[in-house]
TrEMBL record:
<keyword id="KW-0282">Flagellum</keyword>
<keyword id="KW-1003">Cell membrane</keyword>
<feature type="transmembrane region" description="Helical">
    <location>
        <begin position="144"/>
        <end position="169"/>
    </location>
</feature>
<dbReference type="Pfam" id="PF01618">
    <property type="entry name" value="MotA_ExbB"/>
</dbReference>
<dbReference type="GO" id="GO:0005886">
    <property type="term" value="C:plasma membrane"/>
</dbReference>
<comment type="similarity">
    <text>Belongs to the exbB/tolQ family.</text>
</comment>
<feature type="transmembrane region" description="Helical">
    <location>
        <begin position="181"/>
        <end position="204"/>
    </location>
</feature>
<keyword id="KW-0472">Membrane</keyword>
<keyword id="KW-0966">Cell projection</keyword>
<dbReference type="GO" id="GO:0015031">
    <property type="term" value="P:protein transport"/>
</dbReference>
<keyword id="KW-0813">Transport</keyword>
<keyword id="KW-0653">Protein transport</keyword>
<feature type="domain" description="MotA/TolQ/ExbB proton channel">
    <location>
        <begin position="103"/>
        <end position="219"/>
    </location>
</feature>
<dbReference type="InterPro" id="IPR047055">
    <property type="entry name" value="MotA-like"/>
</dbReference>
<keyword id="KW-0969">Cilium</keyword>
<keyword id="KW-0812">Transmembrane</keyword>
<protein>
    <submittedName>
        <fullName>Flagellar motor rotation protein MotA</fullName>
    </submittedName>
</protein>
Length: 262
């Protein structure tokens, strides 16, 4: 769970609502289901028109990454690769075939399978880098969906406000009704601007970070497998792989690595 995402959204909403109520407003004044329907429906429709359906659906599924990191644990991957390096150094790369069942990440498992099958290090790098690039090309479009939604929603909110004003104009003979109608009409604008700046655009930024984080983990996996194939010292492999981690920590002096390098 990403505390920053949950806390940031809660803080933003609480700050806005608190400020409004201090000024004498109430939550009921900005609770308009019709305005929400116009903004959400109009924005979703515009985004669907811009992107292929599979990208739109993928964005909805990937949206959870804003609040839940998921993905592979970098520290655990480093530990696992160092163990594989120790075993390959003692028993040969083919001995890792028995450990493939313990690998949960499909990318790492495929790279190890290529290594066990006797593929040259340069070919392993080329094949897996191609797969990573192709996947990244699709993943990079996910934040663009949220950025597009952040661009459309304020304008759709204005459309909702104008529609509300059209309805208000039919009651010009009743000044009290006009005043309430104008206030209600502008709720759609608030929804549109809030949706863009409190949800869509921040979500796009967080998803870009998630994508970069996941890409670096995949690159770390590939570098680890290639280094094992090249026969690199396990301690050097561990030091190299830790440079890929976002939260970089000094490599601990593990017994297994020390034993392998002795």
């Amino acid at each position: 769970m990403d505390i920053a995402s949950f806390g940031g959204l809660a803080l933003a909403i609480a700050g806005i609502l608190a400020g409004m109520m201090i000024e004498g407003g109430s939550i009921g004044q900005i609770t308009q289901p019709t305005a929400a329907m116009i903004v959400v429906g109009g924005t979703a429709g515009a985004v669907m028109l811009q992107f292929p359906m599979f990208i739109f659906i993928a964005a909805l599924k990937q949206g959870a990454k804003v609040f839940f990191a998921g993905g592979a644990d970098g520290e655990a991957i480093v530990t696992q690769l160092v163990e594989f390096a120790n075993k390959a150094r003692k028993s040969g790369i083919v001995s890792l075939d028995a450990d493939l069942g313990t690998v949960s990440d499909p990318f790492l498992k495929q790279a190890l399978m290529l290594a066990v099958d006797g593929t040259e290090p340069s070919e392993v790098r080329k094949i897996m880098q191609l797969e990573l690039d192709n996947k990244s090309e699709i993943e990079e479009k996910i934040p663009a969906v949220f950025e597009a939604a952040g661009g459309y929603s304020p304008t759709v909110g204005i459309i909702g406000a104008v529609l509300g004003l059209i309805q208000v104009m039919q009651h010009l003979d009743n000044i009290d009704e006009v005043g309430r109608g104008i206030a209600t009409a502008f709720v759609a604008t608030i929804y549109g601007v809030a949706m863009a700046n409190l949800i869509c655009l921040p979500a796009a930024g967080k998803l870009k970070f998630r994508h970069r984080e996941e890409t670096m983990i995949k690159e770390m996996m590939l570098e680890g497998v290639v280094s094992i194939l090249e026969g690199m010292n396990p301690r050097m492999i561990e030091t190299k792989l830790r440079t890929y981690l976002f939260e970089h920590k000094p490599a601990p002096a593990t017994g297994k690595v020390a034993e392998a390098t002795a």
